[in-house]
Amino acid sequence: MRTGPVRCAAIVPAAGRGERLGPGAPKALRTVAGAPILFHAVRGLLDSGAVDLVVVAAPPPQVDPQGIETVRRMLAVFGEAVLVVPGGETRQESVALALAAVPAGADVLLVHDAARALTPPELILAVVGAVQGGAGAVIPVLPVTDTIKAVDSGGTTVTGTVDRAGLRAVQTPQGFSREVLLRAHREATGDYATDDAGLVERIGLPVTVIPGHVEAFKVTTRFDLLLAEAVLAARG
Q1: What's the mean pLDDT when you consider all of the chain?
Q2: Largest pairwise CA distance in the chain
Q3: What confidence category does residue 19 fall into, taking pLDDT thresholds of 50, 70 and 90?
Q4: Would residue 1 count as lying in a domain?
Q5: Residue 164 domain-assigned?
Q6: Number of separate domains in the chain
Q7: Is 84 inside any structural domain?
Q8: What's the pTM value of the predicted model, to 2 decimals?
Q9: 3-state secondary structure string, 31-93?
Q10: pLDDT value for 25
Q11: Domain CATH number, residue 139
């Protein structure tokens, strides 16, 4: 149960279909270790002790007719610490809809993928701390370890090898000052962005990077579900 003012709010866009997981419920509602992926993600944010309120953008009626009420019932155990709103057709739209519901007093905003359900608390705390330390936008990253090839438009022929030294794989939560995130969404063009840091980049503001964590991986495929089960079992 939330008490006191909201200083740090986390937005969780959870309206996607998750088609790479195959037929079934929307990805955020798939079960890992007896609980939906979304439940694990929200609990992790609140258990970090850094987040006062989580705003979840739930599957809209066109994705799941019962999605919003299902999510509200699922997260009711967290009381006033969680607010559920309808999501949009795209991730960017879902974040914008959730952002509009964040209380005015929240000056640190996180945007977190529901699919990164096992993100450890130390990473969440590090992102919040970086924003509180003055970063307008901050993202956790990991070095790219695979060799990266560029291919032609047909995807059949290699056109070159990309130098991976300057490449990083981006994770969440991404952290922002309220002013920066609001401006990024206000000035967003019609072009689709896969993350909110990309919107910040487009308006010419700097994005700070901090070390990510291997357990903040994204549950995208059935193999990832098995990996998530294994991580939770190892945590006990």
Answers
A1: 92
A2: 58
A3: low
A4: no
A5: yes
A6: 1
A7: yes
A8: 0.92
A9: EECCEEHHHHHHHHHHHCCCCCEEEEEECCCCCCCCHHHHHHHHHHHHHHHEEEEECCCCHHH
A10: 63
A11: 3.90.550.10
